[in-house]
Amino acid sequence: MKFRGKMTDAGAVRQLTNLASTLAKMKAASVTLRLSKDLSIFSMCEEAGSGVICWCALEQGQLFTELTLEGATAEHNQICMHLSPALVASALTSSKNALGVANSVKLKLTNKKSPCLTFQIDLPSIGLNPRTCIHDVPITLIPRSEWPLHEHPEVPIPNISIRVSSVKKVRTVIDRLRKLSSKLNIRASSNGDLCLRTETDAGTFATFFQHMPVIQSEDTNDGNVQTVSLWIDAKKIAQLLASDQLNTEYLTLGLIDDRLLHVILTQNDMHLHYLIAAISL
């Protein structure tokens, strides 16, 4: 297997740095990176052996100006590995210093007593001598027989999807409701209303957002407003929003009635997906 990639666009380096930092802040000790000719896909499982709950796919053409990849076989031309997002974020942070951003960031698979993903960062300098910073991030290659375990699931089409632009407001509301109860109710309607609610012995506490853009809604054919609701673990969505380092433009909440919440954090053309299973009271 062989992988070499060269990044020269500061925006692409920043995008990858922010993604790695977000995954690290989500307390992910290890994530999966799947490399192919077309995509770099980061994914995360809730616990060892469980299915993928978080993933983000980045197009290789937007990341790398030069790319060489030889996968496990000609038929399965991919490379799949475990690595630490915190170490990746730390390595990429070195691409910026007091003199400006790096001239280039090169990634390649190496074997230095153990398999590594090596970051070679060419930094700007005052003199004629170039400055190079090298980081070796240890990896664990995943055998092809286990690749299906690290593929993100096919998510059912939501009953209702609502786009939320006021990400900071929603994060603040969820943080406050989480302090009252560990369970959070999310209710969305086809007319663009969103309600975040929790219940305690002292009473019911709710915040309402109106006239939100509706991205997906099932057609009831009777003109009535459709409403979808589910209860989730408040800590999971609070941790996701608190970990966000992507400078998210908006998030999308896709509700599958009483089953699943599909959260998508969007920044330009990058989409971080996160699945939260519904809980019963």
Automatic annotation (TrEMBL):
<protein>
    <recommendedName>
        <fullName>Checkpoint protein</fullName>
    </recommendedName>
</protein>
<dbReference type="GO" id="GO:0005730">
    <property type="term" value="C:nucleolus"/>
</dbReference>
<dbReference type="GO" id="GO:0006289">
    <property type="term" value="P:nucleotide-excision repair"/>
</dbReference>
<keyword id="KW-0539">Nucleus</keyword>
<dbReference type="GO" id="GO:0035861">
    <property type="term" value="C:site of double-strand break"/>
</dbReference>
<dbReference type="GO" id="GO:0030896">
    <property type="term" value="C:checkpoint clamp complex"/>
</dbReference>
<dbReference type="Pfam" id="PF04005">
    <property type="entry name" value="Hus1"/>
</dbReference>
<dbReference type="GO" id="GO:0000723">
    <property type="term" value="P:telomere maintenance"/>
</dbReference>
<dbReference type="GO" id="GO:0033314">
    <property type="term" value="P:mitotic DNA replication checkpoint signaling"/>
</dbReference>
<dbReference type="GO" id="GO:0000724">
    <property type="term" value="P:double-strand break repair via homologous recombination"/>
</dbReference>
<dbReference type="InterPro" id="IPR016580">
    <property type="entry name" value="HUS1"/>
</dbReference>
<dbReference type="GO" id="GO:0031573">
    <property type="term" value="P:mitotic intra-S DNA damage checkpoint signaling"/>
</dbReference>
<dbReference type="GO" id="GO:0044778">
    <property type="term" value="P:meiotic DNA integrity checkpoint signaling"/>
</dbReference>
<comment type="similarity">
    <text>Belongs to the HUS1 family.</text>
</comment>
<dbReference type="InterPro" id="IPR007150">
    <property type="entry name" value="HUS1/Mec3"/>
</dbReference>
